[in-house]
Amino acid sequence: MNAPFRPQDTALVLIDHQIGTMQLIKNLPLDRVKKHSLALAKAAGILNMPVVLTSSQEDRAQGPLLPELQALLPKAYAARVKRRGMVNAWADPAFRDAVLAVGKRNLVMAGITTDVCLVFPAIDAVSEGFNVQAVMDASGSPFDLSEALAQQRMHDHGVVLTATNTVIAELAQDWSTPQGQQLIQLLFSHVLPAITS
Prior knowledge:
46% of the residues lie in helices and 15% in strands. It has 197 residues and is an alpha/beta fold. Strand 5, helix 7 and strand 6 form a beta-alpha-beta unit.
């Protein structure tokens, strides 16, 4: 059984969170997926975790990465791997090398779309010995069926399926620390539904 993910052992990998590609999400509310994706980016910043960003054909229908990612993660955004069209990001040597370069064996991954952009690199990373948690509410697909099949395929290959609040809580470890306090505030402001009295 894999040990819990800790910030010092973990990197965040966001795949194809592009303005055009995001419009393909139909299985979850788009605004929720966007909020959760940005919450992961903010959490990585709070925890000083390395981040790898990648995009595919930014000059075509997929469009650029979300501009909020550039504001939140300027270094990772500048170093993003701009793929020329390789569907499986892991098959792109520049992307694989970027992930290897961070030197972490635990990967928190999200991708738009789950059924094309996330499923293949998540499985390939596991096959190379990485521990991968795929964040399902920071990813999405055009169809419920393709989402369900992609999730099953990842699960069958050893990818752990998770949600934004779960993985942030796991990485926080202790809400009473200064970082934990920032993360719980992040959860209440960006991830968890508003609490009404």
